[in-house]
Design goal:
five-stranded mixed beta sheet; 11 helices
Length: 450
């Protein structure tokens, strides 16, 4: 097409140039003939015209040759780019075909419409769809979201689009054949020039992992329940022996019963933590949430844990900057969270140290800070601090004991009470764990007795 246009253009220039040269030399020949009316004058101007016409044709031919050469180079460059794009696409498809799950681009337009501009063949395994079916419309994918999880997916996408933050979610897919699978998605958003948001990410099938997790939780729950009854009997029997109900024991036997009693208590603590985690996961833990003053709950927690702190020669210091605050909480569950934070602070503090507990108001929330001067938390362990059975690898820290469930349970309890738990720490420079709880509104407070 371009070559044809170049040929037509050069032909037009050739004809136009020839006509202009003919007119020019005809005019010059006429003027020369008027001055010197001989045949030699006309012959010279005719030869000059022919020479000029030949030169014009030569120049145009060379110009056409140069243009064609440039066009061939441009065409070759475009072919190379096209070939490179095809190779890159084929390479991407080959890599994506070997990945578990689907690799995708998801685009959300300003008008709310969405599509998958690119999707690997792995979409067949997740949604039983083809990439072509969702290239211009993502509704076939959204129609397969489990009804109980659909709003989570929509809300997470909206939040990710608004904040341009990582989208990460585990949710269920209900296929047309009624089979339900669990999937995990992760993608990074980018704002486009047209105002749309484009995500790059992947989705993988985690159904088997969820089954294994459920079996593990059921196994732990069953073992915990089966151990609780005989362990209670053992604890009672050892308590009777250690209390010398059946008579005094030899010194060595008394030491052994004391050791056994201490280990039984550790085992009971582990089983209680396992059962609490099981109830939280299953949604069976009951909460008695009601508005109540915060400071008395904190003071009760300090009294209950004072003896534990004394074992490590540590003391608690309470500073109530904002004393008259009411919060909607389950007092027993909040005391359980505080017990975890206070025991950890005492356990990891050096002897004769003080653990500061600060209660204050922060906006429309109550802030509780537990600050110690202990060993701190390493950067490697920080991402796992609230995970189940998580304990730092240091032998000094592991020697402190614990189930590795306390902070995981605390996070779940705070979530159920609409609160937050967080921390900040530097290794070898102490730690601060904090709780944030929404303040109860004035309308929720009980009326004062007249």
């Amino acid at each position: 097409m371009i070559n044809q246009r170049v040929s037509r253009t050069t032909n037009f220039i050739s004809w136009l140039g020839s006509i202009l040269l003919l007119l020019l030399f005809s005019y010059l020949a006429w003027r020369g003939y008027r001055l010197n009316p001989t045949g030699d004058v006309l012959q010279r101007w005719v030869l000059a015209f022919l020479a000029s016409e030949l030169l014009l044709l030569t120049l145009l031919s060379e110009f056409k040759r140069l243009i064609r050469g440039l066009l061939q180079e441009v065409q070759q460059s475009e072919n190379l780019k096209r070939h490179a794009q095809i190779e890159a696409g084929e390479r991407l498809n080959k890599i994506a075909s070997q990945l578990p799950g689907m690799v995708f681009q998801f685009q959300l337009a300003p008008d709310g419409s969405s599509c998958f501009p690119y999707c690997s063949e792995g979409i067949r395994d997740i949604y039983n769809l083809t990439p072509e079916q969702v290239k211009h419309d993502a509704s076939p994918v959204f129609s397969q979201l489990h009804p109980d999880d659909a709003h989570l997916v929509y809300d997470s996408i909206a939040y990710s689009a608004q904040q341009l933050t990582l989208w990460k979610l585990e949710y269920r897919v209900q296929r047309p054949d009624s089979e339900v699978i669990w999937v995990s998605g992760r993608s990074v958003p980018e704002r486009q020039a047209d105002g749309s948001v484009l995500w790059y990410g992947f989705i993988s099938d985690i159904t088997e992992r969820k089954k294994i997790e459920r079996l593990k939780d059921e196994f732990v729950s069953t073992v915990s329940h089966e151990l609780r009854t005989p362990l209670t009997a053992i604890s009672g029997a050892i308590g009777l022996l250690h209390g010398e109900v059946f008579g005094p024991l030899p010194q060595q036997a008394a030491q052994m019963t004391q050791l056994a009693q201490a280990n039984v208590k550790k085992l009971q603590l582990l089983i209680n933590d396992l059962l609490d985690m099981d109830k939280l996961i299953a949604g069976k833990m009951l909460f008695d949430i009601q508005p109540q003053p915060l400071l008395p709950i904190i003071e009760t927690s300090l009294r209950d844990n004072q003896s534990y702190a004394q074992q490590y020669q540590v003391s608690y210091q309470l500073q109530a900057i904002s004393a008259d605050m009411w919060v909607n909480v389950d007092s027993m569950r909040l005391q359980q969270v505080m017990a975890n934070l206070l025991s950890n602070a005492a356990k990891f503090s050096p002897p004769q140290a003080e653990v500061n507990i600060i209660v204050q108001q922060q906006g429309d929330k109550a802030l509780i800070r537990v600050i110690d001067t202990g060993c701190g938390i390493s950067e490697q362990f920080k991402p796992h601090i609230f995970s189940k059975f998580s304990q730092a690898d240091s032998s000094d820290i592991k020697s402190k004991g614990g189930t590795g469930l306390g902070l995981a349970i605390s996070k779940q309890l705070m979530s159920h009470m609409q609160g937050e738990i967080g921390f900040q720490s530097e290794q070898d420079n102490g730690s601060e764990f904090y709780l944030l709880l929404p303040l109860a509104s004035t309308a929720e407070l009980p009326e004062a007795d007249e």
